[in-house]
Amino acid sequence: MSLRRNTLWNLAGTGLPLLLGLVTIPYLIKHVGVEAFGILTLVWALIGYFSLFDFGLGRALTQQVAVARSAGLQQSLPSLVKTGLWFTTATGLAGGLLLGALANQLAVHWLNVSPSLQSSTSQALLVAAIGIPLTTVTTGLRGILEAYEDFRMVNLLRIVLGAANFGVPALSVMLLGPSLVGMVVGLIAARILVLAAHAWQVHKKLPSGWLTAKLSKDNMQKLLSFGAWMTVSNIISPMMVTADRFFISGILGASLVAYYTVPFEALIRVLVIPSALTSALFPRLASLAATNPEEAKRLYKKCLKMVVAVLLPICLVIMLGSRWGLALWLGEEFAIHAWKIVCILAVGLFLNGVAHVPFAAIQAAGDARATARLHILELVIYIPVLLLLMKTLGLAGAAIAWTLRVGLDLIFLMIYKNKASNLS
């Protein structure tokens, strides 16, 4: 299976929905208002963040299933997969209950939402809680498809979900008016359909009768030995990606969130390039790390050079065209507030994109513990720096703190990767 073809499918899966977002984001800001749209981006972030309740089993399933397939252990797959999916279902339900319990507190106290929007925000978060188990199980199913390197199907489904994330809220506004709850209900309905489609595709690939396979304590231990450390990364990494917007809402006010989150969400989509490559790279490296370390090393270096060559000019263009591009897309007033944020984030974008490659290589070798420890260290440094810079420099301070954090992440990952005996 071609790594290039798989990468192109990953690019399409993440990139194509953004074309719809270019149209729907201005529409939503115009019809629901800057603050309500900012709250919608927080709902997106919370659904994504609470998906950490898969306890790393999505990536663990990719790694374990890929290794089992390369070793010819097809008979072990039914129990391995069923055990992993059962666990992601149970933990996803726990995550959904937790978000539901926190919904009112978030809406009324923690997010600094305007009084007129507090009730609808609380209701929207309650609905969003249903999306947590849907997301965790879908992540597990996607991990299995990626282990089979079926990136075509993975990304056809990702296109559907991505298009729904942007298109369903706009459609809801057209049909039901500017209802935050209506937009979130639509998003959850879309996730149900996508989950069913993933389940059907996995069912077709696995040996018949896998649904009746026994749950295995040994398989659970193997998955959790990898997934537990992945969970640490899954808790901390999204926290460091999304914490800034919640601090902005709580300290500076929800009315300013959109000036940061809209350019951030637009820019972060550029990471579809390294993400597409490393997602395709991961199952291949997981197999090669155990069977052909020299080939794994060559593949790693090739991918690192490719990411640098592609991302550097893109980030330079973003910086130079930030003011003009924002004014054209969202209007001059929005551009005045946000163009400096874009310039700062573009630097971090490049650093974070390059870091995708050593991160994937380290985890493909089964060393999720190393990346988790790095994330713990980064979090301890990042949060105080974020608060200090945000209080002194406002939105620009939040952007600077994020850029410094991803730069530190890249340095740590490269140092550790160069010391790893299996890939260097």
Automatic annotation (TrEMBL):
<feature type="transmembrane region" description="Helical">
    <location>
        <begin position="7"/>
        <end position="29"/>
    </location>
</feature>
<feature type="transmembrane region" description="Helical">
    <location>
        <begin position="183"/>
        <end position="202"/>
    </location>
</feature>
<keyword id="KW-1133">Transmembrane helix</keyword>
<feature type="transmembrane region" description="Helical">
    <location>
        <begin position="223"/>
        <end position="241"/>
    </location>
</feature>
<keyword id="KW-0812">Transmembrane</keyword>
<dbReference type="InterPro" id="IPR050833">
    <property type="entry name" value="Poly_Biosynth_Transport"/>
</dbReference>
<dbReference type="Pfam" id="PF01943">
    <property type="entry name" value="Polysacc_synt"/>
</dbReference>
<feature type="transmembrane region" description="Helical">
    <location>
        <begin position="83"/>
        <end position="103"/>
    </location>
</feature>
<feature type="transmembrane region" description="Helical">
    <location>
        <begin position="338"/>
        <end position="362"/>
    </location>
</feature>
<keyword id="KW-0472">Membrane</keyword>
<feature type="transmembrane region" description="Helical">
    <location>
        <begin position="306"/>
        <end position="326"/>
    </location>
</feature>
<dbReference type="InterPro" id="IPR002797">
    <property type="entry name" value="Polysacc_synth"/>
</dbReference>
<feature type="transmembrane region" description="Helical">
    <location>
        <begin position="123"/>
        <end position="144"/>
    </location>
</feature>
<keyword id="KW-1003">Cell membrane</keyword>
<feature type="transmembrane region" description="Helical">
    <location>
        <begin position="247"/>
        <end position="272"/>
    </location>
</feature>
<feature type="transmembrane region" description="Helical">
    <location>
        <begin position="156"/>
        <end position="177"/>
    </location>
</feature>
<dbReference type="GO" id="GO:0005886">
    <property type="term" value="C:plasma membrane"/>
</dbReference>
<feature type="transmembrane region" description="Helical">
    <location>
        <begin position="41"/>
        <end position="62"/>
    </location>
</feature>
<protein>
    <submittedName>
        <fullName>Polysaccharide biosynthesis protein</fullName>
    </submittedName>
</protein>
